[in-house]
Amino acid sequence: MKPASTLASWWPIHRAEAHCDIPCGIYDPITAKIAAQTVLKMVMRIQGAEPPSPSASAEDRRAAFNTTNRYVVVKEEHATLCKKELDILWHDYFRPDHLEAHPDLHTMIWEATKLASQCKQTVNLDAAQKLVDSVDKIATVFWSTKGVEYDDAVADVRFGT
Fold first, then answer.
1. How many CB atoms lie within 10 A of CB 96?
2. pLDDT tens-digit profile of 98-120?
3. For position 50, which CATH number holds?
4. Nearby residues of 8 by Cβ (< 8 Å), 6 or more positions away
5. With helix as H, strand as E and coil as C, how does 85-106 read?
6. Residue 115 maps to a domain
7. Most buried of the four, 5, 42, 107, 154, by CB within 10 Å?
8. pTM for this entry
9. Which one is predicted more confidently, 151 or 57?
10. Residue 5 covered by a domain
């Protein structure tokens, strides 16, 4: 038996997934923001989708069904991504001194992740907008920890909402 195989049998290697194992120190709430905005946009598209008329062809009905299903899949994927990115910020970036400076940070992140879950479960425009707003508040806190004033209006223009 080879030495590497012997060691592996004694101490099995388990796969770990993380934002960064070094840690890299590269964090940014923008992925969560884009994900939240995508959830909002998909909810708007789902709500705005016109059902096919009773006289629509089978092909038109299938196309409408396919399009709506694609909106739902994207909405759910991005709600999950938003939760994941917020979780990374919460567990890997924010430190006790950030929580001291922003005592409502835990509640903000908890509420945002709950909103992301609600957005997965429903087609609720109000919840989707609240998710975007919650991520913006968290981004404001994030950037304040770096001494940067976050301007969500500029971010909205820059990222097309």
1. 7
2. 999 999 999 999 999 999 999 99
3. 1.20.120.400
4. none
5. HHHHHHHHHCCHHHHHHCCCHH
6. yes
7. 42
8. 0.80
9. 57
10. no
How many alpha carbons fall within 13 Å on the CB side of residue 112? 31
Residue 29's identity, in one-letter code, is P
Q: Which structure tokens are listed for 142?
A: 């994030």
Q: DSSP assignment of 49-76, as one string?
A: PPPPPTT--HHHHHHHHHHHHHHHHHHH
In contact, 32 and 85? CB cutoff 8 Å: yes
SS3 13: coil
Q: Token pair for residue 120?
A: 């997965």
CA torsion, points 54, 59, 65, 68, in degrees to nearest 10?
-110
Q: What is the pLDDT of residue 157?
A: 41
Cα separation, 22 vs 141, whole angstroms: 24
What values do phi and psi take at 22, rounded to 5? -80, -40
Count: domains in the chain: 1
